Amino acid sequence: MKKQEASENTIRLLLRYFSVIILVCGLMPSPLRAQELIGAGVDYANPRPYKIGGITVVGSQQSDVQAIKLIAGLREGDEVLVPGDDFSKAIKNLWNQRLFTEVSINVAQIRGDEIFLVIYLKEMPRLSRYMFDGIRKSEGDNLREKIDIRHGIIVTENLKSTSISQIRDYYIEKGFFNVSVKDSVRPDPADTNFVFLRFIVDKGERTKVSSISFEGVSALSEKKLRRAMKNTKEKAWWRVFKSSKIMDAEYEEDKESLIAKYNKEGFRNAIIVSDTLMRDGSDRVAVRIKVDEGNKFYFRNMSFLGNTKYRSTQLDSLINIRNGDVYNSELLEMRLFGDPNGRDLSSLYMDDGYLGFRAFPVETVLPGDSIDIEIRIYEGGEYHVGNVSVVGNTKTNDHVIFREIRTRPGDKFSRADVIRTQRELAALQYFNLEKFDVRTTPRADENVVDLEYVVEEKPSDQIELSGGWGGNRVVGSLGLSFNNFSMRNIFKRSAWSPLPTGDGQRLSIRAVTNGVFFQSYNLSFTEPWLGGRKANSFGVSVYSSTQSNGQRKKIDGEINPLRQSLNIIGASVNFGKRLQRPDDWFLINGGITYQHFDLNNFGSFFSFSNGFSNNLSANFTIERNSIFEPIYPTYGSRVSLMSKFTFPYTLWGSEVQNKTYDYDNMSDQERFDWVEYYKIKFVAEWYTPLNRNKERKFVLTNKIGVGFLGTYNNRLGESPFERFYLGGVFLSGFLLDGREIVNLRGYDDLSLTFPSDNVGSPVIAKYSTEIRYPLSTNPSATIFALAFAEAGNTWSEFRDFSPFNLYRSGGMGLRIFLPMFGMLGFDYGWRFDDVPSNPSMAKGQFHFSIGMNLGEL
Questions:
Q1: Nearest Cα to 854, choosing from 732, 761, 752?
Q2: Range of weakest confidence among 55-59, 248-252, 464-468, 612-616
Q3: Do the bridges between strand 678-689 and strand 462-470 make them parallel or antiparallel, or are there none, so unpaired?
């Protein structure tokens, strides 16, 4: 009996030990380490209750000690069974926090019925900082925006693998399919338990497209389909402006463009069945796209439902889609809602007050290949403009904005007037166009809509700091343009911050100098709304310049005989008016300019070296300007006819005063005592967006300019003033005699001026075209790239004028507009023609320019 009881006790003891071992092993995650209740005095064979007398936490550097005790679930004063499940639960609770690599609970001391415990921890390392190897700093900055890693975060295997995956995805989207990323961790010697995490990135070569092929294509040529894919292109040696990289986002966009191309050709049911990217070498992929074209469809009948304001025949004429036309959903959408010229159904109604207008095209596919379109129209009520308000103008006074607003309270609502208002506010160049908004609040019970124009001020004043080369010397200029000046507040001390602003007036101060040899000063003021009621502008300017050989005027009170100088003083007054007919895009401008030239032994600029000359002229310009966004125009045009003329003194003297002029023996001083001439210029430019419904548009820009300087009296000869100079990008600052320096990139400065660059030309023609693309539309730095082709020439006589006998060039460029400095231009041009007078001219040249319209005819 005793043997049997001893055997049973032995079995029970073994089972108890075995259970404890299984429990501990089950709670011990690998490779991390956990230990439960280690310490002397614990009888594992005979559990008994103890009261916790104290708990000490060892190894906690970043974690709060009290929080660890709470998480463990052990509190001083609690009664626990030792050994028991309370300790297993405590360890499990601490493991679940994923903060530690080691956890153990030890018995420090047992005093009667009290037990004192020590929780030993080893915390996981935390991040001190992380960095990238193998990539540029700018790429690293972009990656930091993608990866959610910050100082102090716990560095786990999951954190590293997730970050590596995000880095790989970033570069795969950029076209680097072979990218590899590794991580490296090392301790931070300055901070215990903190580590440096380094990502080693090898981008490899960007994956290129070796070929693009199609399956199931018969209606459209593969060449046409490849052209429809604007971003994904095959690798070719001649492709310079578009690389053959493949990027996920752009590739998906190109597939949509492919289907849009089919839809435009009438294949409304075309779909991409599958597309495959196949490796074609380590850094090449072949793209194969399988297409189901479906049938080609045609429009049949067009009908309208719900229209009461306009007859169906009138709407049908506006839509202009006929029975038998190839089905084109994009064309239908444009005729309903989005014609850029405003010739669509939506514009017809919304320009006539129908703010709530809606149109819903319903297609009915007939057996075969025809589609009937029923346009269901909801006209709504005719709305009038209620309250008009402006918010966001912190600098510009309300009256400056309200005088440009075309939507007046009580007027019939017109979307065209809202768009025109946006254009006029953009032309002021005071506001950030990206933040411009119009909030409409309809009051349906009154058929009234309240309009709130939201603007955001941007810097409009400019500081011009420029340099150039002229007269064999460096020429520097400093200009200050205050484009939102307030003359009426000039005597208010509180308005000076730093200058009185807000009334939309323009004050410009400019100085040009190269030291003692040349100084020029100009002051101008413009009031765009003279009287404040109508858009009648008034401008006045005064200027003075001195050019010399550097000698002083007097020595010991006596006139210096060695001094050579040219002094010019001048003033001008201009008036402008906005017309209402033929439409209110037309402007007229007229003015009077006077210049007085005083030459003292100065023989390098005019045909005479001593004496004086006077230039009193009137100018008149008529212009139609519908350009939208002056910095980066996307559409609109400007056509202007400009004339400038003096009084015909010699003809008037001969015919009215019976004066006799001895032209054969007349000196140039007498000949140009009062200069006489007439000058006519015609300039046209227009802008066409090449990709519609895009936030950033390619824009085609075309310009034509022709100028002619004539004389009333052939015996007197042509004026030496107001002549044209062509070639290069000339920055001299010596524009003293009304001369116009016109740029033609790719050629030497002034090299295309005939008969010579000293005399100038009386006849000029220039044509140019550019394709522009905006890199940044941020108002604080507007940047766009361009490719250009241009041609021009000058002639010494009008009878030699040949509009197609031109010098041609092409190239690329960049424009950067900074509000404080204006437009900066960088171009590289290649000339296509040789200049007989300069056979050694370089084939290509770099050009730098400053100013919006510098060098434009």
A1: 732
A2: 464-468
A3: unpaired
Q: Helix-strand-coil percent breakdown of the chain, rounded to 5?
A: 20, 40, 40
Average pLDDT over residues 134-142: 89
Handedness of CA 726, 729, 734, 736 (dihedral sign): positive
Distance (Å, rounded) from C-alpha 235 to C-alpha 210? 5
- DSSP code of residue 758: T
Q: pLDDT tens for residues 389-406?
A: 999 999 999 999 999 999
Query: CA 854 to CA 191: how far, in whole Å?
Result: 60
Closest CA to 690 of 344, 247, 230, 240: 230
Q: What would the DSSP string read from start to end of 76-106?
A: TT-EEEESSHHHHHHHHHHHTTT-EEEEEEE
Alpha-carbon span 430 to 504, nearest angstrom: 9
Q: How far apart are CA 461 and CA 506, in angstroms?
A: 9
**Cis omega (within 30 of 0) on the bond before 498?**
yes
**What beta strand segments (E) does 293-408 contain?**
298-305, 358-365, 370-378, 384-391
What is the separation of C-alpha 505 from the centre of its chain, rounded to a whole number of angstroms? 27
What amino acid is encoded at 21 in this protein? I
Nearest to 751 by CA among 721, 720, 719, 792: 792
Is the pTM higher than 0.85? The answer reads no
Q: Is the pLDDT of residue 14 over 50?
A: no
Pairing status of strand 180-187 against strand 473-485: unpaired
